[in-house]
Amino acid sequence: MGEVYRAHDARLGRDVAIKLLVRDSEPALQRFLREARILAQLQHPGIPPVFEVDQHEGRAYLAIHYVAGTSLEEMQLSRTRAAKVVRDAARAVQYAHEQGVIHRDLKPANMLVDAQGRVFVLDFGMAKAIDAMPALTETGEILGTPAYMAPEQAQGFAADERSDVYGLGATLYRLLAGAAPYQGRDPLDVARRVAATPPEPLPEVDALAGIV
Prior knowledge:
Layout: E1 2-9, E2 14-21, H1 26-41, E3 50-56, E4 59-65, E5 69-71, H2 79-98, E6 101-102, E7 111-114, E8 119-121, E9 128-129, H3 151-154, H4 161-177, H5 187-196
Antiparallel strand pairs: 1-2, 2-4, 3-4, 5-7, 6-9, 7-8
């Protein structure tokens, strides 16, 4: 739904991430503005804050704290380190839940680790308030990333806090196994597999019991 660029705020002397709205439609704009409102209410070290929401040449944009880091999708970690990283991400997600917000699209690409080892949860564009009305969607659109979505989401049911917990677990699975829990010909095929069958179990995960 958005393009993200790194930019420099010359007035304040800081780098920011600029997220531009791509889809020119009222539902897309409302979802974009909802993301801004959600980010504005979340104040946690693991969630980059929003600085500004505005329009430029007719396109809505968000200015967000820039995180110089690497996404979990690009990282190879030891089992212990992987568990600790996902644990830190889970703390940020727990905070969001305590504020009444669910993410709904947790996956390795939406989690960054910076040079100091700090973990950040990004992209709340799919998020919604737990007690909100149904999400602003377009007909036939799959909300979320099928390989990491919970079975109830793949079956068309509403997501809740447990769906985020599943997304964290699926992310840890990817870090431990080197591949997402599910593969398929296309996103719809993956969603069908998620809805119908459990993932292949991972061997030798008992050693992580004291970490996660």
